[in-house]
Amino acid sequence: MHTPALLILASTIALISGCSATAKTDAQGFVIDPGFEAKLQEQLLDAKPGAVITIPAGKYAITRSLSVAVPGVTIRGVGMDKSILSFARQNSGAEGLLVTGDDFTLQDIAIEDSKGDALKINGTKNAVMRRVRAEWTGGAKTSNGAYGLYPVQVSNVLIEECVVKGASDAGIYVGQSTNIIVRNNRAEGNVAGIEVENSTGADVYGNIVTNNTGGILVFNMPDLPVPGGKTRVYKNQVTANNHVNFAAKGTAVASVPVGSGILVNSNDDVEIFDNDIKDNQTASVIISSFYSLGFESKRGIAAAYDPFPENVYVTDNRFVGGGNDPGARYEPLKALGGGALPPVLWDGFTNPKIAKAGICVQNGDAKTLNIDGPNKAANPRIETGVDCAPASRLPEIILPATMLAKK
Amino acid sequence: MKALLIAALLTLGLSGCVHETTQVTFHAEENPQSLKEWGLFDVKAGRITPRAGLVAYELATPLFSDYAQKWRAVFVPKGMSARYNPDKTFDFPIGTVIAKTFYYSTPAGTPPGTSARVLKVTPASYQAGDQGLDLTHTRLMETRLLVRRAQGWEALPYVWNAEQTEATLQRTGAAIPLEFDDGGARNRFVYTVPNVNQCAGCHATDRTKQLFPIGLKARHLNRDFPGSGGTVNQLTRLMQIGYLTGAPNAASAPRAARFDDATAAIDAKARAYLDINCAHCHSATGPARVSGLWLDLPTSDLRKLGACKPPIAAGRGTGNRLFSIVPGHPEASILAYRIATNDPGEMMPETGRSLTHKEGVALISQWIAGLKGDCAA
Hints:
Number of helices of chain A: 3
Largest interface: A-B, 56 and 54 residues
Strand content of chain A: 35-45%
Number of domains of chain A: 1
Shape of chain A: elongated
Structural class of chain A: mainly beta
CATH superfamily of chain A: Single-stranded right-handed beta-helix, Pectin lyase-like
Low-confidence stretches of chain B: 1-16
Low-confidence stretches of chain A: 1-20
Oligomer: heterodimer
Strand content of chain B: 15-25%
CATH topology of chain A: Pectate Lyase C-like
Mean pLDDT of chain A: 92
CATH class of chain A: Mainly Beta
Structural class of chain B: alpha+beta
Number of strands of chain A: 32
Mean pLDDT of chain B: 93
Radius of gyration of chain B: 21 Å
Number of helices of chain B: 7
Distance between the termini of chain B: 77 Å
Order of helices and strands of chain B: HEEEEEEEEEEEEEHHEEHEHHH
Largest sheet of chain A: 20 strands, parallel
CATH architecture of chain A: 3 Solenoid
C-alpha cells in the first residue's frame, strides 16, 4: 500500500487511443481501428519500467501474439467486460499475451479466444493478475487453448478476482512457481478450474470453482526441472464440477474423472480445509499417485521424481452430496459408502521406502475410500488408518507489499 | 555514371534523414530507420551485393522459416575478431553486425518485389550468396540484423519495399500474405516478420534474457562454402580472414550434420535438425526449459529428448498422443505431430513458420521410426 507504485502509476500513464467513446465497430462487434494492434505492440516494446499501458473500452481484434519483455509494465483496461483483447482472428503465436519481464501487472481486462494459452508469464518474478477475464467464448471445446492464466517458473504470483472460462486444460494454471496466492477467482467450464503444478508454497482460497471437470488440482508431474509441494487449499466453494472432460488425449488432465472436487496428484504437503465442496459426482477430494494418470511405461519413472502423494491433510471441510455418479469403474464401490462414494477417495499407492505416507483425514464423520490401486482394485475398502494430523501446519504465504497494493 | 550519381543525390535529398553510406557502418546506439544507413549492401543493376567486410556464410542445417531462403553475412570491425568456443556462440567484438536476409524465388513475368506467389528453391534457382543475390526472380522479404553493442546483442528487423531498393525498420514486425508454390501444390500463408520481442523469443537462449546469435557456432559453421579462398571450410576461412581466433583444425571441431545429406546417418541428421530448429528454446536454459523436453545436441538422455515422456503444457498440441516420442512410432509421437501441424495453438516452433516443413517432418519421423524400445506399461 505504499506510495512508490502509485507515484509511478500517476506519472507514466500512456493512452493508446484518446477517444474510444465514438469508436465504430464492425459486424462482429470489433472496434475498427487498423492501427491499434501495431500501436499496442509498439508501446509494449518501448515501455520503460513503471509504464502503465491502458486499454480503452472496446473489443479489439489482435492477430498475432502480443509480448512484454521489459520489467515493470502494467497493462490496465477499464474492466474485464469492457476492455477486450480478442484473438478470434489470431493467425500466429502460441499465446495471446506472452510476458517475460519482471514486475508485471495485468488488470481489469479480458483476453478472449486465443489459439493457445491466453496469458503466459515465463521465468519472471512478481506477477500480478487482477480482475482479468480469460475466456473462450464458444464454450467448452477441445480446440480451445490450454490455459487461461499461466505463470510458469515465476516467483511471487498473485491471481485475484479473475474469471476463467473454457480452457481445454486449466483455467488458472500455476506451474513450477514459488510463493503463490490464488484467491477470490471464479473458474467455470474448464477441464481443470485451478491447477497448481510443480509449484512450491501456494495459498488457494476464496475461489468459486464450478462446472469444470475437476475443480482444484494440486499436481506434480515428472521430467520437470522443478518439483513442488506445500499448498493450502481453503475456504473455496467447489461446486458441481461435473463437466464432461474435453481435454485432448495425452494431457495429464485428460485422466481427471468427471466430478472431481479437489484432486491431489503426486504432490506432498498439501492442506485442504474449510472448503465448501458440494455435488461433485465422483468425489469431493481425490488423493492419487502418478500411477493413476495413465502414463506408466516400461521406461519407468524418472529417478528424481516422487510419484506418491505424501502428507496430505483433509480437515474441517463441509461436504455436501457428491460421489453419486462416479462412472462405471467406481460404480460398484458406491455400496461401501452407503449408496454414494465417500467424500474422500485415495488410490492407495504409497512409497514402500517410507513408513507413513501421511495421508490424514480428520473431517467429522467423512469416510475415506481406499480403492486399492496397487492391487488393481482387488480389495477396495473404507480406510481406517487416516485419522492423523501433521506435526505442524503450513505457514501463510506472504507476498511483497507492492504486489498487494490495490490499483 | 553521372546520371546514377544525380539519381542517388536526388534520392538522398528527398528522403532527408537517410544518411546513405557506401561502407559498413556500425551504429553504437541509435536504430536507423533505413537499412541503408548500415551500409551493408549495394543494390543496383538487379543485384544486391555485400560491401567490403561483409562475409557470407551458411549453416550445415538451417532453421526452417516457411521455405524462405536466407542469405547470411557477418561483418567484424577491422583489426578485431571473435573468440572460438567449441559449444557456444563465438564471442564477437562490439561493432559486429550480422545480417540475415530472407528471400524467395519468384515466377518469371511478375515484378519480384510484389509477387505474392513464391517458389520453392531448386538446384537451378539456388543462390549461394557469396557474391550477393541476383534479384531478377527474387523477392526480398526482410533483413534481420543482430548487432553487437556494448550492452549486448540487439535485434532489428528491416522489411524491404516493393521496389526492392530499400528496407525500413519495423520493430513491431509485419504480416505479409503470400502463396507458396512447391512445384506441385500451392498454399496460401502469412509470412510473419517477428517483432523485436519475438526475436528474443529465439535468441534469448537463457534466463539472463541476453540475446545471442544462434548459427554462429562451431558445429553449424563447420562445413565448406564458397567465398574468399574458394570453396573451403568456413571455420578455416573465418580464421584466415582474421574474423575468428582460436579455432582448431576443422576436423577436430564439432560438426552438425546437413539434414539433407543423403550420406549422413539418420541420427546425426535428426539431431542436427532438432538442434537448430528447437534447441534455442528446448534446452536446460532456454524458454522451454519449463517443458522438461531438451532437444539440444549435447543432450543424450533419451527421456530428456522425449522418449516416453508425458507432455506438460501441450494442451491440444498433444494431437491426442501420450508421449513426446514413442520409439518406433512417429504416428504416436507428439513431437512429430507438433512439427507437422499448422495450427498456431499447437505447432512447433511456436513462431517463425506457418507452413509445414515436409522434409523436416519426414526426417524426424524416420528417426523416431528407427528408435528402439516402446512405452507400453
